[in-house]
Specification:
The protein has about 650 residues and is mainly beta. It is about 5% helix and about 60% strand.
Length: about 650
């Protein structure tokens, strides 16, 4: 206890600071200076440029300076410091299956955007996109908008959206960037790229390579089973091209090829020396933008394909009943949208329509003590489409009052129609106090596997629907101190659960039966003085499920209530502090996580103990063109678990150099 108190005190009296001549301050886990917060321009909240202070929506931004300081980390690690965001597996072995949660919502209820376009993997049961496929080195900034955002972004935007905005091309004709880093677990990462602007054309080409010997994904509870290391290898190529055809008309093209392979263990606490997995992602997009006198019209298209394979060879048997298995999961998405923004001094109008189609092919083969087993799901059956017109309007006056209202009509090829809405009033008083309240409805369409799997699927599934209420205050006490507090409440009905519907034949099926409620509070603050800055945030979440089935999927004689925050801590604290000393920047960062419940199949949940981690980061800039960094993580070597039976990283480090010419 004394040691923990000392660490907390050390963080509180230390600091993190931004460059003295920096025009826009960084936000560590949601903090920012009042000036930057008032003047910062965001795009995700209303699909157009908007001052962050002018929206009532709860937005956090990870800025380019923070991305640069996070080169020794992953995208998930950076997101994990945002209040209300929890990524299960962010601190496990590279390649770990990661799930993104915002404010206690279950996996698949957070929509990932890349440059404003939704991405997902329809071959996954919860339809989520694998963040392992996106290297942080190819990211410019990240905007997180919390609360139900289905009115603007459709299905899966139940608890929020995370918009990953890719790197911008350099403004000069030819620019070169490169970085090389290495560290614990024999990990090496290299990035190289060129970009530039030449008259009416700008371009960007980036390549990232990652290699890690890693460590055993599964935890050896005895310490003497000699579990093998589960390595990771990744290659990512990204390119974009923008062409200014006329003064008003711009065309854009982009593509990404990302693939990685990693070692996999049999299960929690169980090693497997020849179980491997690969993931490949192909993306290709195009768009047109036409500027109006007071607005813009946009046409976008994205093709997204993800292929995952899992092979468990027969040379090492983790179980006497499992000899060999091979599976392949393919998901393909087409997304197209047309929308326009029309703005006047007191009115901002957004109207559009989007179309999205998903399909999946899945094949599984295994050989065990009871003979071969084969199952498949083909895209001739497992496919669906959605068509959604939507509109939103913001009314504002010169006194700081802003009111946003919006509606979406969604038509789904299987279950029919559903409607979502938003209502977001906001009042900024004398550029000091912002009062806001939000009312959202949102939905999550059933995944293809839940609808069409030959054993467990149910074509009668309806969308999960939710209503979210937010209210809060943001106060700018002085030019260098701000704080924000938000209360949120979410009520979801028709939640889909995997149920034992026939105990006699052990028959399971997906059905709409649950009602889930979550509520909590987020607080964040930032203080800047001279070369010093302190940032802190705290999140508390509570939640429950009301269902006629228990946590194992077995039917009960009457409705029961139980905790539904699996994997998700009720209390999380992030504190960071740092200072610039001439060309040297130093940051100390503390994270504390409370106990969590871990679901166990066909059994009662287990409790994972709370923990803390302490990180120390430093970088030195030789010039604007060259910088070296050292990132020490979990420096007190805490042993903890984010996933039952799987290892998290102990003390580890990354160090490297980046060059921009």
């Amino acid at each position: 206890m004394k040691k923990k108190n000392f660490l907390v005190a050390a963080v509180m009296i230390s600091s993190r600071l931004l460059a003295q001549d920096q025009g826009d301050s960084t936000t560590s886990a949601g903090g920012a200076s009042s000036y930057s917060e008032l003047s910062r321009v965001i795009i995700t909240a209303h699909k157009s440029n908007q001052r962050q202070s002018a929206t009532g929506k709860v937005v956090n931004v990870i800025l380019p300076e923070q991305i640069e300081q996070g080169k020794g980390r992953t995208l998930s690690e950076l997101l994990n410091a945002i209040p209300g965001v929890s990524i299960n597996g962010a601190n496990n072995n590279l390649g770990t299956n990661q799930t993104v949660n915002i404010r206690g919502a279950s996996a698949g209820n957070v929509l990932i955007l890349i440059d404003g376009i939704p991405v997902n993997d329809p071959s996954v049961i919860t339809n989520y996109y694998d963040l392992n496929l996106l290297p942080i080195d190819q990211v410019e900034r990240i905007e997180i908008v919390k609360g139900g955002q289905s009115t603007l972004y459709g299905s899966d935007a139940v608890a929020g959206v995370i918009n990953v905005i890719t790197k911008k091309p350099a403004e000069k004709a030819l620019a070169f960037n490169a970085s090389a880093s290495g560290g614990s677990y024999t990990t090496f990462k290299n990035t190289v790229g060129i970009s530039g602007t030449n008259k009416s054309i700008n371009y960007n080409l980036q390549y990232t390579d990652v290699y890690s010997q890693g460590f055993s994904a599964a935890y050896d509870s005895t310490g003497n089973k000699n579990f093998d290391k589960d390595g990771f290898r990744q290659h990512v190529l990204y390119g974009s091209l923008q062409w200014q055809l006329t003064q008003q008309l711009q065309a854009k093209f982009n593509g990404r090829l990302s693939n990685y392979n990693t070692g996999v263990d049999a299960s929690a606490f169980t090693d497997d020396k020849d179980f491997t997995s690969t993931s490949k992602n192909w993306q290709g997009g195009a768009g047109l933008s036409y500027k109006l006198n007071k607005g813009q019209i946009n046409l976008n298209y994205l093709y997204n394909k993800v292929v995952r394979t899992y092979t468990d060879d027969s040379s090492d048997r983790s179980s006497p009943f499992a000899y060999y298995s091979d599976s392949k999961y393919e998901g393909i998405t087409h997304f197209a949208e047309l929308y326009g923004n029309f703005n006047t001094a007191h009115v901002e109008l957004l109207a559009g329509i989007d179309f999205r189609s998903n399909k999946t092919n899945q094949d599984y083969f295994s050989l065990g003590a009871f003979g071969p087993f084969t199952t498949s799901l083909k895209d001739t059956l497992a496919k669906m489409w959605q068509l959604s017109p939507y509109a939103s309007v913001i009314l504002k006056n010169d006194e700081g009052l802003s009111i946003e209202g919006g509606i979406r009509l969604n038509h789904h090829s299987e279950y029919g129609n559903n409607i979502t809405y938003t209502f977001n009033p906001c009042y900024l008083i004398q550029r000091k106090l912002k009062i806001f309240g939000n009312l959202y409805s949102a939905f999550k369409a059933p995944a293809l596997y839940q609808l069409f799997d030959p054993f467990y699927g149910n074509k009668d599934l309806k969308p999960e629907k939710s209503t979210t209420v937010e209210g809060g205050l943001e106060y700018f006490f002085t030019d260098n101190f701000r704080t924000r507090v938000v209360y949120f409440y979410r009520d979801a009905k028709d939640a889909i659960q995997f149920l034992l519907v026939d105990p006699g034949f052990f028959t399971y099926q997906y059905r709409n039966v649950n009602r889930q409620k979550s509520h909590g509070i987020e607080w964040e603050a930032s203080y800047k003085k001279g070369r010093w800055q302190w940032d802190a945030n705290y999140t508390h979440i509570s939640g429950k499920t009301i269902s006629p089935f228990d946590e194992t999927g077995s039917e009960l004689p009457r409705d029961t209530t139980y905790n539904n925050l699996y994997h998700i801590p009720k209390d999380v604290v992030n504190i960071s502090a740092g200072v610039f000393i001439k060309k040297l920047f130093i940051k100390l960062q503390l994270k504390t996580v409370s106990k969590r419940l871990e679901p166990v199949y066909a059994s009662q949940p287990k409790t994972l103990e709370g923990y803390y981690t302490l990180d120390l980061y430093g970088d030195y800039s030789f010039s604007k063109k060259c910088r070296v960094f050292l990132d020490l993580k979990n420096i007190t070597n805490q042993k903890y678990f984010d996933i039952l039976g799987y290892n998290s990283r102990r003390f580890n480090f990354m160090t490297g150099v980046s060059v921009n010419l």
